[in-house]
Specification:
Layout (H helix, E strand, L loop, with lengths): L4 H10 L8 H22 L2 H7 L9 H24 L1 H19 L6 H28 L6 H8 L2 H20 L1 H22 L15 H13 L5 H19 L6 H27 L4 H21 L4 H25 L3 H33 L1 H28 L4
Helix pairs in contact: 2-6, 2-8, 2-9, 4-6, 4-15, 5-6, 5-9, 6-7, 6-15, 7-12, 7-14, 8-9, 11-14, 11-15, 11-16, 12-14, 13-14, 13-16, 15-16
Amino acid sequence: MLANATALAYGLTILQSRTETSFALIAALWFAGLCAAAQFAKVGVIFPELLKLYPNAGAAAGFLVSLLSFLGMILGLVAGMLVSRFGYRRLMLVSLLLGSAISAFQALLPSSFQLMLASRLIEGASHLVIVVAAPTLIAKVSSDRHRAAALTLWGTFFGVAFALVAWFGLPLVKAYGPASLFLVHALSMLMIAAVLFVVLPHDKSPDPNSVAFTLNDIIKRHFQTYGSAFISAPALGWLFYTLSFVSLLTLLPAFVAEEQRAIVIGAMPIASIASSLTFGVFLLRYFSSVQVIIIGFAASALCSALLWLAPGSFATCIALFACLGLVQGASFSAVPELNPNADTRAYANGAMAQMGNLGNLSGTPMLLSLLNTMGFNGLILFAIACYGGGIAVHVVMAERRKRSLVP
């Protein structure tokens, strides 16, 4: 994000080549990402406790988690248009304050289930803007040398947030009840909003003509974005990643020996984060982001085949998620690598949010259906199809980019 008059020039040069990296600002933006991911984790991790608060909700209780994804699935690209028009700083701060206010309201534990659901729907707008604006900003304030590593770090925000909420949030809820977790989350978002208010440079004045918001313009922007092999490639590959990640994390442990199940549940996302920050960063020094994504998908498909030969293998489950970690970090670093300016990066991150939410919403029901009809074979075929699809999308998009003159 840019600063007053001088920051406009700064913002223009930052889009090209940077020699310095704002590590403190990257850390602050990553913490904002943790708060955004915790909007999922604070409900998902303590879901059984929330069911006790709304015993008559029935199957609709699942919407307490999934409604947060709804706006992202529908409006992911619109969020990219919004931050491009009105500025990253403005919308980041508004979204963090909105998220804090919603968590504070949820800490009141409203007796009406419909009110709690409404708060989750509104909270989805806060989540969406943060996950679009923050990685775009991280790319802007990173030097060419550090950008891939910084965006790989960003890619860990979801797994880290779930781990932190599980490690610290569950004991907190056990001692003080669900309201305590919502309140801590509200204070965390308020705190990082205050930090970013100080450290984020100011946006340039919004240009009302920069991005139009008629229905025709929004539809046109979707066609332009998904028609571009530069802007859409990270998002289309990300769809295949998210289709499998949450669904396998949820359903694969059931096939692991019961005495190892709890360890596997915690170790799989940690393996993904660890490989992303170590081997993933190492590979990005020598290969393009798209090449690392393809390597990650191919290795994941191989692990899936090995898992078919040895169902429930502890080591293979961990290896599978370690390979997915390569896709995780490289997908975010592919956005600035393929897109040279902030606007196209915002659209690319908006498309990633859109495809990611679509994958999160549909992956688990699809895999459940295959498990019910084909058993464990269905799980393996689902995983291999996802990773083969991810490879195919990136190969096709790479061929299209070779024939295109304009990114």
